[in-house]
Amino acid sequence: MTTEIELGRGKRGRRAYAFDDIAVVPSRRTRNPEDVTTDWSIDAFHFDIPVIGAPMDSVVSPRTAIMLGQLGGLGVLDLEGLWTRYEDPEPLLAEIASLPDEVATSRMQQLYSEPIKPELVTARINEIRAAGVTVAGSLTPQRTQELYQTVVAAGVDLFVIRGTTVSAEHVSSVAEPLNLKKFIYDLDVPVIVGGASTYTAALHLMRTGAAGVLVGFGGGAASTTRATLGIHAPMASAVADVAGARRDYLDESGGRYVHVIADGGVGTSGDLVKALAMGADAVMLGVALARATDAPGNGFHWGPEAHHAKLPRGRRVRVPQVGTLEEILYGPAAQADGTANLIGALRKSMATTGYSDLKEFQRVEVVVAPYDHR
Amino acid sequence: MTTEIELGRGKRGRRAYAFDDIAVVPSRRTRNPEDVTTDWSIDAFHFDIPVIGAPMDSVVSPRTAIMLGQLGGLGVLDLEGLWTRYEDPEPLLAEIASLPDEVATSRMQQLYSEPIKPELVTARINEIRAAGVTVAGSLTPQRTQELYQTVVAAGVDLFVIRGTTVSAEHVSSVAEPLNLKKFIYDLDVPVIVGGASTYTAALHLMRTGAAGVLVGFGGGAASTTRATLGIHAPMASAVADVAGARRDYLDESGGRYVHVIADGGVGTSGDLVKALAMGADAVMLGVALARATDAPGNGFHWGPEAHHAKLPRGRRVRVPQVGTLEEILYGPAAQADGTANLIGALRKSMATTGYSDLKEFQRVEVVVAPYDHR
Amino acid sequence: MTTEIELGRGKRGRRAYAFDDIAVVPSRRTRNPEDVTTDWSIDAFHFDIPVIGAPMDSVVSPRTAIMLGQLGGLGVLDLEGLWTRYEDPEPLLAEIASLPDEVATSRMQQLYSEPIKPELVTARINEIRAAGVTVAGSLTPQRTQELYQTVVAAGVDLFVIRGTTVSAEHVSSVAEPLNLKKFIYDLDVPVIVGGASTYTAALHLMRTGAAGVLVGFGGGAASTTRATLGIHAPMASAVADVAGARRDYLDESGGRYVHVIADGGVGTSGDLVKALAMGADAVMLGVALARATDAPGNGFHWGPEAHHAKLPRGRRVRVPQVGTLEEILYGPAAQADGTANLIGALRKSMATTGYSDLKEFQRVEVVVAPYDHR
Amino acid sequence: MTTEIELGRGKRGRRAYAFDDIAVVPSRRTRNPEDVTTDWSIDAFHFDIPVIGAPMDSVVSPRTAIMLGQLGGLGVLDLEGLWTRYEDPEPLLAEIASLPDEVATSRMQQLYSEPIKPELVTARINEIRAAGVTVAGSLTPQRTQELYQTVVAAGVDLFVIRGTTVSAEHVSSVAEPLNLKKFIYDLDVPVIVGGASTYTAALHLMRTGAAGVLVGFGGGAASTTRATLGIHAPMASAVADVAGARRDYLDESGGRYVHVIADGGVGTSGDLVKALAMGADAVMLGVALARATDAPGNGFHWGPEAHHAKLPRGRRVRVPQVGTLEEILYGPAAQADGTANLIGALRKSMATTGYSDLKEFQRVEVVVAPYDHR
Hints:
The structure is a homotetramer.
Chain A: E1 4-8, E2 11-15, E3 22-24, E4 29-31, E5 40-42, E6 45-47, E7 51-53, H1 62-70, E8 74-78, H2 90-98, H3 101-111, H4 118-130, E9 136-139, H5 141-154, E10 158-162, E11 169-171, H6 180-186, E12 191-196, H7 199-207, E13 212-215, H8 222-229, H9 235-252, E14 259-263, H10 269-277, E15 282-285, H11 287-290, E16 300-301, E17 317-318, H12 325-330, H13 342-352, H14 358-361, E18 366-368
Helix pairs in contact in A: 1-4, 4-5, 7-9, 10-13
């Protein structure tokens, strides 16, 4: 089904495409941006916009989770981050933003070695739920068995299991691995799980009963992952592959629609448009939201891989603050670089290409046209 | 008919080419540059050169429209620009050229919020017509119904409807959209309409009765459109596709030849040559003419998207002033960068490849040879 | 025969390759560099190395023509350059090397407007012949009829007709064009003619009776030609195409072998190796020899297109001086950048890939492996 | 079997891929890094890690050969380097690290002109063997006949013959070339030989009876080799081709498994992962180990081609010192750039893609996804 390239006598591989390699093209119909809807629903939960704040301490705090919910999206709190390790992480977030580069990694390793406190997990979830928005929290596969009962008891609406690569079939000789299928079947709460970056991996995750699959090699900039691990799953192809798995699983399961959520590589409104064009139902945003003046990162952005003890595959990076969370989502934009008014840009793009809802927009025509940043 | 690439299981797309990706190659015959003609006619109007000044305030004023006409080309006045909003825009043009970068966008948004005055529309058209050159003015699809009667009554020779993307089938729930087919049928004046960037979109525009179609995603540099909207229609492929629509429509209509005008991506004489080589009948020039010392932009260039209220997709840019409008078109060129003597370069290119007129030159051989600017 | 790419509905084109896009790969056999021969013969003339100095004032003077001959190669004097316009051009060459950038073009236009003096043509040719080396001089197609009798009477061994693009079929309404076939037939001296950059153009040149064909779009850096004229003939493909014409013409003519000489794009020993690998019999070097401390350009390099009156497509460029002409050809090299010991590198490359003479080396395996200069 | 591209009428070539052009992608299974083994055996010798220190004076001294052995890998001493020319090379290594750039090449040419002393060959080998690690030394094909008896008598475990390109069929008119087949047959010690970069060259080397084949164009950065010789064998394709030869030779020989060792282009853990993914059994590391604070190069790196008398194809380069040899192999890594914790990264990559040993990992899925370093 896919075209393989011969790399040498012993090896073949597919050409894979990044968002930068592709672009959306207009077709014969156009629409008014006002006639476009950006609605998205997963399980019983409805959202005005297909935007999920990534479970990273620089992006989602209880406060920004509530803001994102009120702005029509969803914020996922990292239940293994500072908010469940410390009573009051605000001073620590401020400290991280003030650290000189050379000590940032070691100080963050120190901060994140504080144990997770189940009572804080409960408290944070309660705080978000009290605001009346949809509540979502994330755990890594490694900590899920230890903490999920606390999380469910506290009352999350959506449960996110997110790791670098999460497979339906994890092999371990040292511990009984998480049986995702049984775990999800037993749980009352819908589960979003990932990252997965291939058709097969995603299809297996869909068969576990997940409500949504995160597409991507979650965590760490593509450049550092590639330099350290040699691994790279260019996102345009990864999203299309997983969307293909969604279609095949829909048939195989007799009608279960598993949502495909692009998680990684979406830094601008142009990337967001392309992720949806390649077949994503929604996008999980990290750096794009960390650029908010009211984001918890205070102008910095980092993921869990930045403070890995022996093999850091990322680092704390300074990000430009381009406006409030609301301005980043709804404008007005002061600059034409795709960092603000993400939803305005999405509407304009859908209108220009003649589509009125996100599901239809997945069929928009794209071209391969590698872009030279110069 | 076109070769599609599999981007992933769920998605296919064509490879699209920019002018930078291609080059013209000489064939077995050569000619004297003196034996080459660059004539171009559309409807009853004849031009010595296939060059149209873009309807942008930094490029075409009544004065430069007249100059372009006298130099053998055509200037299209933006009938929604400063010249129809203010009695005397010259001081405002000078002010725009003197604004610091940080306030340019907001001051321009202010200036362009002044209402359009129908009497100024009439006055500007009269001024150009009085000089004895072909008169052309442009409106956006949004303002066409409001203003076209004033424009036609004032006596334009060519009517241009130009928007980001103009389709023959615009869908709107808030207002009755412009019925292009009926509008063009009822009008006595030939209409040039666009931008369109695909075969299908262009074919539908041709069926409305337009005399010419603008090829491109009009307005905004490719880089910013791509970052904000995720949209990009590389011009070499877009021109070839629309030229393909011209050929098919010629057959379908029993002989109506709709002119294909490349509008975007033509910044140098090399680009101009390639646009014609890919099948364009003429080119609409923006930045290439804004570089004239006597252009109204006074060393700056901007389009309507630069002062969009909520989603600016461009900005006022400083451009090098390389010579008078006449030198830009006919030389002599002081530098070998393709910014001056556009027509001399076109003649040399046609002569070197052995073609004697523009219609023949559309058959010239091209190669794919991506160019590294370093 | 060639694979075409669809660029759009109305247009197809081949992918063309530059020397930078390809590389030679070793095969199963290796040899001692001492067992390799770099001999080359054209007509009755034999050379130790397949290197021709380009007819450019910065590269070949009577003195360097003699040096190149004594070093085993061939120098072609530009018979329309300073040496046939002035009794003593040495002070003028020194002046050109001392001009500030901003006045270089205009002063050179002035210097080259001095008329050509037939008696100087005779004197220069005599000077070279007196040194006992093979004598070669070049004219443009435009001046050939006016000056060839002087050139032949003075006694050149090889006659070079070199222009931007030379075709066997030049069309002109203002003057009787040079009938190459008749001209070459009537001449007693073997003729090398070009540039040609396609199979068809080269095949027609071969049919005129030429002893050699120059491959390339002679004159002007690829970058400026591409920006100004939109023309680019990537050299690896061009050489292979013309080598294909050589093979087909050999069959068609019942055994006449026309030499293929790469003229352009050969700046390093790596490029020289690749030109021969793609099928060239010899290379014509410009900038590679202008880097000699004893080259007439005194650390500068320019071609006739640099002082074109209305459409300059190049300019005087400063080049690093890397050693004497002898060191550039035979080493020792102080740096590993391919600018010196061109012949040593060629020998090493032939030995490493197991070939013992240049004709065999045309069959060496090459790969497409675009090179990133960073 | 391989897809060829038409470069022009006279020439075809394959597209070849570098490590930078490809990436490994995760599949449906994941594992614990603890369950992964990186064992490798060649002949009777077993190693914990598939890492060989390259025979270069900046990488392997007797001391670092012992350290590498104790850390689970193998160090190969260059038996034509400073250690067999001087009684005490430490001051000379320190001097090389202190030389200004402009005199480095000439001083190194001087230092390496000192004759090789057979008694020092014996002494160095004895020193390494006394430490109880596997002993390996390398000679060039040119010096093998002169010195191999000394080497074997001193008691090496593995004999390495390493040159720019080593073929099974070297042709020489000046000296009787080394008959590899007879030489290896007569020798009691297993031989690793290379570089080879194509299927055919490697297959012929395998037929000589070698235990391992080095893949690469040994010596000199790809960039300088390409600029000087026009030769480039992109490593991803070269490793796959030679792995293909291994498979075919395994069948042809009725079961002899010849080890494929990537030698060149492996500068980071990401490259190491990709080399194994393309089919290598082990990697030979130069610059990656020269970055150790305890490497003999003292922060500099050079190969034999850097002090070639007439055609240097490399130079002494300064390299960042990123940690001890142990930290480079096993971490912890302070930076996410792939220069430290090579084995930790390999384990993580294998675990993430679900493979438990190196032989299985050769089957991991790869994609073509050219990487933009910006």
